[in-house]
Amino acid sequence: MSEPHTVTAYDDELRWLSRRLSEMGGIAEGMVADALTALINADTALAQRVISEDLLLDQGEREIYEKAVLVIAKRQPMASDLREIIGSIRIASDLERVGDLGKNIAKRVISIHTMAQPKKLVRGLEHLSELALTQLKEVLDAFSSHSAEQANSIRERDEEIDAIYTSLFRELLTYMMEDPRNISACTHLLFCAKNIERIGDHATNIAETVFYVATGQQMTVERPKDDESASVVADPAE
Amino acid sequence: MSEPHTVTAYDDELRWLSRRLSEMGGIAEGMVADALTALINADTALAQRVISEDLLLDQGEREIYEKAVLVIAKRQPMASDLREIIGSIRIASDLERVGDLGKNIAKRVISIHTMAQPKKLVRGLEHLSELALTQLKEVLDAFSSHSAEQANSIRERDEEIDAIYTSLFRELLTYMMEDPRNISACTHLLFCAKNIERIGDHATNIAETVFYVATGQQMTVERPKDDESASVVADPAE
């Protein structure tokens, strides 16, 4: 009777990892969405709440890391389970970082909430964040369903986020050049945009992990993870 | 006779991981140092070389990931070896990201090399990068020597990098406000500074991994990994 019991306990451990990771995903998505809502409404109380939630993700990452190492040591899992458990560690680390980026946006909301902000560009940031959050949500679904195909298509769609980010970068720069009074707020918005673009990169990282967990192969074609904003040169009109 | 042979092969695998990680560390450090040299000398050829080297780190990370999973599956290592092997995966991921950040600086060098740059602030960036590279070098030494104590002191020193970064952020903002012609170059310098500050954070992440590998315990006191620049508010003088 001990064998089925052991297997059940092991299954429970794997399910625990998977459930804890889903919880982290939900928290991370919520933080980013709330940070953008706080930005749009200049809502510093909401921004403060986002900042405080970051601890939950730090804790989640630690717990998953410890549990994963314990499970591997105790159960000596077969290759596919092993990939999934190590994948959990990697994904937890990406989600923790997504939370950091959400928190950083929230901090900037508090810094700039009294300043005039270009409505059109803030809406652009909101759109960017919707795309990034869709990627994040879908890649976590792909992890649950072990879908290499879905992981592949998510990675390819990151280019759209990069393109929109680069165009926002250019517009924010132009806005700063038009009136130096915009510089302080727009610099923070630039970093908010960069943070959202990075959230898209983390979704891409997770997609790569999901692909490896599902297939045992790493995605071979290197996707350039960088956006093009590093190459944007804008001179003032004068 | 098969047992000693197996142990030796296993030791070889662990040594391979450790050596490959050292190589990655050397490449990452070199890329960041070269990116800064390229920035200071407006040397686009050097910047181009940094960009091309990034592939080496992508490849290193993949190889370490695959090898680590294989070694765990094959050898079913004891807890301390297991922590070290999983630690290798985490550290490889941090080093790959350091390379990305170095590459991103190099791309910006190419964008702004013809523009006037505030010499004092570029020197400030150089100083910041020297601190970050020292952290990176020392934390890789700490990994080799399994020194929890050294890992601890490295994590604490990250505050200095954050403080200098925040002060550079403020100065760059002021510079942009003084003359809109500085905006384009200074925005890229702002992101270069942010990249260097992030490299310091990756050294901190590695310190946390080293501590866990060495002790089996996670660092308990949460260090705020964020700099204070998100809270900088600077208005134009007018």
From TrEMBL, chains A, B:
BP-aspect Gene Ontology terms: intracellular phosphate ion homeostasis; negative regulation of phosphate metabolic process; phosphate ion transport
One GO cellular component, as annotated: cytoplasm
Sequence ranges assigned to domain PhoU in this UniProt record: 21-109, 125-210
Keywords: Cytoplasm, Phosphate transport, Transport
Domain of life: Bacteria
Primary gene name: phoU
Subunit (UniProt): Homodimer.
Name assigned to this protein: Phosphate-specific transport system accessory protein PhoU
Compartments, as annotated in UniProt: Cytoplasm
InterPro entries according to UniProt: PhoU (IPR028366), PhoU-like_sf (IPR038078), PhoU_dom (IPR026022)
Matching Pfam families: PhoU
Coiled coil: none
Function text: Plays a role in the regulation of phosphate uptake.
Residues of the signal peptide: none
Family: Belongs to the PhoU family.
